[in-house]
Model the fold of this input.
Amino acid sequence: MVSLAHVQSSNSRIASLLPPRLVAVFVGATSGIGEASLKEFAKHACQPRVYFVGRSQEAGHRIAAECKALNSEGEYTFVKADTSLIRTVDHVCSDIKSKEKAVNLLFLSTGSLISTKTSEGLPFGTALITYSRNRFILNLLPLLQQATALRRVVTAFCAGKEGPVSINDFQGWKVSALSARGHASSLVTLSLEALAKKAPDVTFIHDFPGPVKSNLFRGGQGAAIFALNAVFKAIGPMMTWYSNQECGERHLFLATSARYPAGSDGDVTSGVPLTEEIAVARGTNGASGSGVYSVDLEGESSGRKVEELLANFRKEGVVEKFWKHTEEEFKRITGLEVV
Done:
């Protein structure tokens, strides 16, 4: 366990130990996890340049103003976009590429329990959690590799909850509700392993934020969404929720600590240096500092059971099969492998 006190101590050193004008892109940042993490980055980074993407213009204006109040030396640019659409992701990334030569941090927290189909033929929830996130990473990977001091991707979903994958139904159309979380969580982690092969000098982290209040049902309609809302309202008062502030603080630690180096680093110079009490994290392949991490809500590696599951996926070629499928879907939708 990485204590909250250690997290806060590490975060407090960001401005003095990392260079000024770090460039960050937050996708899904107009509520919940993304908003909290963005605000912690704004608070602690020195003269940050931030692009944050979401659907609500009203929330975007509010958050930009609140970030400016936290750190007046930062620049905060809101990008209104429906990131369930791959073509829209390409447009957002092209705009960022036209303005920046490097990106230090890409933080992804989009998600939804809505089960409708997008206009591009993907399940809405799956589009946000896997395809859209992968497209953002793939498009911005060259800018991440151009960065100095920090080159990191953090994707918040259900790390540690990886489970069996339906290799004949990657999109999850027929995956049962009980199996959906494990299926999707595995695909998120396996995607990062595929991307790390393209960019071993970048850190890739899949994490589980814990029980944090967010807008997973926003925009949903119908009996199923009504029932899920009713269930959450009933059990909500009985649950122990993580505060949004602690969630943001822990995500900032994941985004900046040398505990999670890239696989090709060879040392731990990328990020806020560690103290003696904290060791370099174990990666998804079981090796210390491997560059791809599946971590729980307290920053610890997901454990041997998950590592064994992922090792079996690698032996069966699931990483390659899913990435080939992903590239085929990108080509079907956009005609382009990357923008």
User: Anything to note?
Assistant: The beta strands are 23-27, 49-54, 75-80, 105-108, 152-156, 203-207, 292-295.
